[in-house]
Design brief:
Helix content: 25-40%
Order of helices and strands: HHHHEEEEEE
Strand order of the largest sheet: 1-2-3
Structural class: alpha+beta
Number of strands: 6
Largest sheet: 3 strands, antiparallel
């Protein structure tokens, strides 16, 4: 099991230090929005490339073929993020702030969902996996590691730390 160092960080509400910002409504984001935009960008790019390559036959080629997995995975992921977003949104009625698809400044990465409650803040990275979720202990006496499995397949990068 990997050990990590917990660091406390403080955040300040912009509306608390800048009262004029308080009147502006909060953009809560759209669950799966950036993944859907990435799918759309890749899908349109493929369509343009196929039409440029095959000319008048491009429409036939597009009708008889599907997007590659690297493109369709973005649409599949967006669908999963939207489904999770719909499950998280009712938490707003419990007094929690639920934000979706937040950009990380200075990065191309994003946070899929952010739930801010009176005590902790939850950062949620959505994955659209199918199957039973299991935690398995791997290793022996001297090197033990908790691992995450979904549908019998290891999610090594997502191992529990």
């Amino acid at each position: 099991m990997r050990a990590g160092i917990a660091r406390e960080k403080q955040a300040t509400c912009v509306a608390c230090i800048t009262p004029e910002v308080a009147e502006e409504p909060i953009n809560r984001g759209v669950a799966g929005g950036s993944a859907a935009r990435e799918w759309q960008r890749r899908h349109e790019r493929r369509e343009q490339d196929v039409r440029a390559r095959y000319g008048k036959l491009g429409g036939v080629v597009l009708a008889l073929s599907d997007d590659p997995h690297s493109t369709s995975a973005w649409a599949y992921g967006a669908k999963g993020e939207r489904a999770l977003g719909h499950l998280l949104d009712p938490l707003r009625d419990e007094g929690m702030a639920v934000l979706h698809d937040r950009r990380i400044p200075g990065s191309r990465a994003n946070i899929d969902h952010l739930v801010i409650s009176p005590a902790p803040v939850f950062v949620i990275d959505a994955k659209n996996y199918k199957g039973r979720v299991e935690r398995r202990v791997r290793g022996g006496w001297f090197s033990r590691e908790d691992c995450l499995y979904v549908g019998g397949r290891t999610k090594r990068r997502s191992s529990l730390a």
